[in-house]
Specification:
Order of helices and strands: HEHEHEHEEEHEH
CATH topology: Alpha/beta knot
Oligomer: single chain
Number of domains: 1
Low-confidence stretches: none
CATH architecture: 3-Layer(aba) Sandwich
Mean pLDDT: 92
Largest sheet: 7 strands, parallel
CATH class: Alpha Beta
Number of strands: 7
Strand order of the largest sheet: 3-2-1-6-4-7-5
């Protein structure tokens, strides 16, 4: 029988920056309430090599047994940063040179046309509500996932997978030259 310990919770995402060997890639979740969505977000964060997942302590689900089960091991491998003030954490990352990109279905620019290769924090909003105003205002840029179907938006965990994949794709391409 193996015993797994949760990934260390970090008080401030800036603590992780010094140890990185590649540009930071944070997944920031603004008020995700569904434990299945948070678990799936942790899972895709692990799959695409996110530095950490950042979320508010209040008005968000937090790490629960259901989250850990859905994450299929990622809750033990991806650092989780629960913050009191999300906008303050984003400003702190900006001061450290991290570009903060929000995702919203009503953005004017498409994600696949933006340059996503440097230190980056991808910010996704809660189910149904999207990004809160202050969070959105703190972002350096707001982008949308280009979609051709009839639905207007994606589930937050699906959007996280699409966004993180696009970042990884661009980073691989920039290394190849």
């Amino acid at each position: 029988m193996a015993r797994l310990e949760p990934a260390p919770q970090v008080a401030d995402a800036r603590e992780l920056l010094a140890a990185l060997t590649e540009p930071a890639l944070f997944l920031v979740l603004d008020g995700v309430q569904d434990p299945h969505n948070l678990g799936a977000c942790l899972r895709v964060a692990d799959a695409f090599g996110a530095t950490a997942v950042i979320a508010p302590k209040d008005r968000a689900v937090g790490l629960t047994p259901v989250v850990a089960k859905v994450a299929s091991g990622a809750a033990e491998t991806v650092p989780y940063v629960a913050v009191t003030n999300l906008a303050r954490q984003l400003r702190s990352l900006q001061e450290a040179g991290v570009w903060v990109v929000g995702a919203s279905h009503d953005a004017e620019s498409d994600m696949d046309r933006a340059r996503l290769v440097g230190p980056l924090a991808l910010v996704l909003g809660a189910e149904g509500e999207g990004l809160r105003r202050l969070t959105r205002d703190t972002c350096d840029e707001i982008l949308r996932i280009p979609m051709t179907g009839t639905v207007g938006s994606l589930n937050v965990s699906v959007a996280a997978g699409v966004c993180l994949y696009e970042c990884r794709r661009q980073r691989r391409q920039s290394v190849r030259g």
